[in-house]
Amino acid sequence: MIAKIGKSENLWSALTYNQQKVDSNNGTVLFTNKIPDLWDRPYSVKFFQRYFEPYLVANNKTEKPVRHISLNPDPDDKVDDSNYREMAQQYMNETGYGNQPYVVFKHTDIDRTHIHIVTTCVQLDGKKISDSYDHPRSMEICRQLEKQYNLKIASENKNSNPLLNFKPVDIAKGNIKAQLSSILRHIPRTYGFQSIGAYNTLLSQFNITLEEVNGELHGKMRKGIVYFVTDENGKKISLPFKSSLFGKHAGSNNIQAQIQKSKVNAKNKLSKQILKTTVETAVKTSNSEATFKKQLLEQRIAVVIRKNDQGRIYGITFIDHISKSVWNGSQLSKDLSANSFHQHWNHFENKPHVKSHTPKNNDSQQRTTAMENIVMDDNKIFDGLFSDFLSSDANIEQEEQIFESQMKKKQRKRRKKI
């Protein structure tokens, strides 16, 4: 079981986030502490807020008095409501929050059922409950709960945590903002790309495309980015999503900064030469587009080929998931330009089939070894390819951040009206 401890100044936002799950039949109130149970009518944010106010008023100097905790068992663990209540109470008692008002919500909007607890670190006498070493203490309690309730053990090593299979956005699953957010908050700061086009090519692997927009704000011209969900053919199938919904990492200024940074880093990058050699070897040992792409996928290199209506190749891009960089073919070599590939594969169209083989150079062997346990898909990035930098609760965390950002914007608008 994994516990996350969120600290903020906005109690209303934390309560509203969870209560909306309840109101939309995607959650329930499992348990309340020092807050009366309501059996004859539904709970509300105002009702909960009333019982927290005396604590918050007792100390208004603490910058982040709100604690928003989530307890996340392994997806294979089956935990009933009674055990969830007991685990929540035990966790709160052992972390020092047992005498505080708190609400336990169960979320059922995704396959992995989990609970959220909203409380405050301010006591009635105005003293703050110490949060020194709260994360190590929380992890220790989780280990105890795993043994006590026969749950799967979550490793304390971050790299060993259950990882999210980072898949293309699926509009049929709903929760589109959360799906987009989990990708757009990580990709720009993880991969190197030297143009907007290269960034867009990278996003296409996840059924996402972007458009740059220009407009005037307060007398000054501004540039921005909007994102769309696409189908497997790249056709837009959603309304536009402003980049501000996903934080600064997805915005125009940050993307342009990343482009400039990538251009500087690319000048002396050994990985460029390794990629070039690997691609050149694959060209020599394959006689078709399909075998070429398959060989490179085995070495964690995705190939995106763009063709016109007549089938002529006008662009080719390589996404190297080892060095986390994106390169157009012409950037690697003139011999790896789109036109060169068009001529090369046309050359084999009327020739007998020649069995291809996987290159055996040292770099190829290293790349292939890294891929031994990964299932590949010739058309899309295979499942789990990006799992090395996302935790299992990434979607939930991003959804909460988006919600909190929206709440803050609404509050700012109210203040301006006043």
Question: Can you give a write-up of this model?
Answer:
This protein folds into 3 domains: 2-163, BirA Bifunctional Protein, domain 2 (2-Layer Sandwich); 171-266, no CATH class; 270-389, no CATH class. It has 14 helices and 11 strands. The protein has 418 residues and is α+β, with helices and mostly antiparallel strands. The strands form 3 sheets. The chain has a 5-stranded antiparallel beta sheet, with helices on both faces. A 3-stranded antiparallel beta sheet has the order 6-7-8. Residues 156-165 and 353-396 have low confidence and may be disordered. The protein is elongated, with a radius of gyration of 26 Å. α5 crosses α14 (394-417). InterPro entries: Endonuclease_MobA/VirD2. This is Relaxase/mobilization nuclease domain-containing protein. It comes from Chryseobacterium muglaense.
